[in-house]
Amino acid sequence: MRQSPAEIEQYQAKRIHELLVYAVRHCNFYRRRFLAAGLTQERDLTAENLQLIPVLTKHNVQESMESLLATNVNRRTWRQNSSGGSSGQTVMLMQDATYREEGDATSYVSDRMQGWDFGKRVAMLWGGPQDTRSGRNIKDRVLLYLSNHRLYDSFDMNVPRMRRYHRNLECYQPDSIVAYSSSAYLFARFLLEQQLSPSYPRASIICSAETLTQEMRSIVEDCFRVPVYNRYGSREVGCIASQCKPGSGLHTHLDKIVEVLDLKTATPVLDTPGRIVVTLLSNRALPLIRYDLGDIGIRTSKPCVCGVNTPVLEKVLGRSSDFIRAPSGRLIHGEYFTHVFYGRRNVRQFQFVQESPTNFVVRVIKSGELAPAQLEDIRHEIVAVLGSSANLRFEFPECIPPLPSGKFRFTISNAKLSLEA
Ligand SMILES: [Zn+2]
Asked: How far is ligand 1, taken at its centre, from the CA of residue 3, in Å?
C-alpha cells in the first residue's frame, strides 16, 4: 500500500531525530555545531529544526574529518571511500555496513522503478579507474558475473572500441544499460551515424552521474527505442533520486532528506533552482547532515502523477562533465580526471582544462605540500590516457573561479568535440 505524504514525513522525522541525537552523542563536530545553533537539548533535535543547522561543506569534511567520525562504533565494519565529486573537490569519507546495506536496497528500488529486476542482464557503460582498471580483484569480477552485470569501460570511447562494444552487446543482449549520461549519448550518436540499429537493450536505459539534457535523451531514445530513465546520485551518499518514468521528476529515496536551498538566502525553496543538500539517514560512521553536494536542482511542490508520494526533484541542473579529446583523437570521459584525484593527499581542489588539441592544464589548489613524486604520479596517470604527445602543464592557483552560473566544472574542454577519430 502506498504511504501518504504525512506517513512519509512522520517516518523521516523519526529517523532525522535518531540521527541528530546520535550525532550529538558521538561526533564532536556536531556537538559543537548544534550548540552554536542554539540546539542545546536532545528534544530540540527535530526535523523542524534541521534547517537551523549550518550546511556541511566539502571543505568542512576535509578540515574536520577526525571530529566528524563517530567515536563509539566498531570501526571494523567501516570502509573508506573518496569522491572527486562533480565540483572537483576531493573528499574522503567513511561508510559503515548499514550504509552499504541500505544503499544496496535503495539501488534495487531505483533499478526496479526503471525496468530492471532480479536475474535480468545489465550492461554498464561506466567506470572509474577503481571500477574498471587492472586493479580489479577476483571478488569483484565474480560478483559482477553472479549479478549478471557486464562492464564496458566508458573512459575510452574511441570509434573502434565503440564498434567492438556494439558487436559484444548484440551477443550479450542486456535487458538494461546503465551509463554515464554523456557516454550513452556519445554511444547513441555513434550508432546513429554509422546507421547501426541495436537490437538491445530489451527493457531500458538508465542514465546517471551527469545531467541528462533533453537533447541527449532524444538522441538516446531515437537510437535504442526503449524508455530512457534518469537517476541522480553521488559517491558520497549513493542513489539520491530516480525517475519513475521517462521525462518525469525524480523521486527522492527515503533514506535521504533532500533540501534545495535558495542560492542567496540558503533557505529551503520549491519550484526554483537552488543548492542541493542531502542528509544521509543511514551512515553512522561519518554522519552527513545537510551536506552540500555542489549541485544545483529544483524541488517541486507538485506531486508526481504516478501516485507515489515521496518528495520529487523536478530537475538536476548543474552536473556535466566534458569529454576530452587526446592528441591521438581518442575520446576520454571527463570523469577520468576526477578519478585521478580520488583519495590524493593535500589536493583541495582541481580542474583539468584542454586548451587546444595538444595543450592541457592541470590546476591544483594545494592543502599542503605536494611532493615531486606525487606530481609525477598524477602526470603519469594523465599521460597514460592522453599519450606522450600531450603537453601537460601544472598550475597552483590560490583559487579557481567558478563559471558565471556559479557552477564549478572540474573539466573544461576548449577543443571542439567531434566524433571523427
Ligand atoms: Zn512518479
From this structure: 13
